[in-house]
């Protein structure tokens, strides 16, 4: 987690808190849109005390965050990318001021997969989630085309060879919910891994939903397309 700053340049604060670039923030200052403690400011190099000063842009108070951490309930038809010329991205679900910071997904989901996505612009912190060495467990609710046999479930738990890979998957945990619904826990993040694991035992994934990453559980109050900030305690899960 990034170190919390006590002071920051005014132009940087504006750029971080709005969808303006640094140069656009400079123009906004010159045009009189910015006030510090209700006093108009013109200089971007002015230092802001983050604990005591109040900055307004066009009469709206700006809340500075050096880094952002939040969970998003991803719907279908969105991709986990900053930009895509053809498809909608998860950043389209965010307010412009946050989307402009281009936070990235800590473990992407396919376009037709729903569920928990963690977004941040703190690369060091994200490493605690995405690094293979950390073996961060991800939990998925899987809807399958047909029922898995006990032998199929044992194979998935012990590891299977995915088509095109020469290395067996790491041990997994699988729980049967009903005939065609399973809860799968894996510690890897290979390309289309869950779908390819089910294909390896002659089955097919019909629906896929990520419920949990590490100790972080998707907030049941978040509808598809909604997001919220992670709490300090939740951020600490991955430090």
Give keywords.
239 residues; alpha+beta; Structural Genomics Hypothetical 15.5 Kd Protein In mrcA-pckA Intergenic Region, Chain A; Alpha-Beta Plaits; nine-stranded mixed β-sheet; four-stranded antiparallel β-sheet; 28% strand; elongated
Name the assembly state: single chain
CATH class of the largest domain: Alpha Beta
Average per-residue pLDDT, rounded, comes to 95
Q: What string, H for helix and E for strand, traces the elements in order?
A: EHHEEEEEEEEHEEHEHEEHEEEH
**Count of strand segments:** 17
Task: Indicate how many domains the architecture comprises.
Answer: 3
Silhouette? elongated
**Distance linking N and C termini:** 7 Å
- Show unreliable segments: none
Question: Tally the helices: what do you get?
Answer: 7
Cα-atom radius of gyration = 22 Å
Query: CATH superfamily of the largest domain, called what?
Result: Pseudouridine synthase I, catalytic domain, N-terminal subdomain
Please describe the biggest sheet, giving its number of strands, its sense, and whether it closes into a barrel: 9 strands, mixed
- Give the helix/strand class: alpha+beta
Report on this structure.
There is one protein chain. The protein is α+β, with helices and mostly antiparallel strands and 239 residues long. The chain has 3 domains: 7-61, Structural Genomics Hypothetical 15.5 Kd Protein In mrcA-pckA Intergenic Region, Chain A (Roll), CATH 3.10.290; 69-131 and 216-236, Pseudouridine synthase I, catalytic domain, N-terminal subdomain (Alpha-Beta Plaits, 2-Layer Sandwich), CATH 3.30.70.580; 137-213, 2-Layer Sandwich (Alpha-Beta Plaits). The protein is built from 7 helices and 17 strands. The strands form 4 sheets. Strands 7, 10, 11, 12, 13, 14, 15, 16 and 17 form a 9-stranded mixed β-sheet that branches. It has a 4-stranded antiparallel β-sheet with strand order 3-2-5-6, with no helix packed on it. Strands 1-4 form a two-stranded antiparallel ribbon. Strand 2 and strand 3 form a beta hairpin. The radius of gyration is 22 Å and the shape is elongated. The termini are close together. The mean pLDDT is 95.
């Amino acid at each position: 987690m990034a170190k919390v700053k006590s002071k920051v340049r005014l132009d940087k604060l504006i750029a971080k808190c709005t969808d303006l670039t640094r140069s656009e923030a400079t123009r906004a200052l010159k045009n009189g849109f910015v006030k510090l403690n209700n006093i108009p400011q013109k200089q971007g190099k002015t230092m802001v005390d983050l604990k005591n000063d109040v900055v307004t842009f066009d009469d709206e108070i700006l809340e500075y965050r050096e880094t952002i951490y939040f969970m998003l309930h991803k719907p279908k038809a969105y991709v986990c990318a900053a930009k895509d010329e053809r498809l909608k991205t998860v950043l389209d679900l965010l307010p412009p001021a946050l989307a402009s910071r281009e936070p990235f997904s800590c473990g992407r989901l396919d376009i037709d997969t729903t569920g928990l996505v963690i977004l941040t612009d703190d690369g060091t912190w994200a490493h605690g989630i995405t690094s293979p060495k950390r073996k961060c467990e991800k939990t998925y609710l899987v809807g399958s085309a047909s029922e898995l046999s006990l032998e199929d479930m044992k194979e998935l738990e012990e590891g299977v060879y995915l088509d095109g890979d020469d290395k067996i998957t790491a041990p997994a945990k699988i729980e049967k919910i009903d005939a065609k619904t399973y809860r799968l826990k894996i510690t890897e993040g290979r390309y289309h891994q869950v779908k390819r694991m089910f294909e390896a035992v002659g089955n097919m994934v019909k629906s896929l939903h990520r419920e949990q990453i590490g100790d972080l559980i998707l907030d049941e109050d978040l509808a598809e397309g909604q997001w919220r900030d992670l709490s300090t305690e939740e951020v600490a899960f991955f430090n």
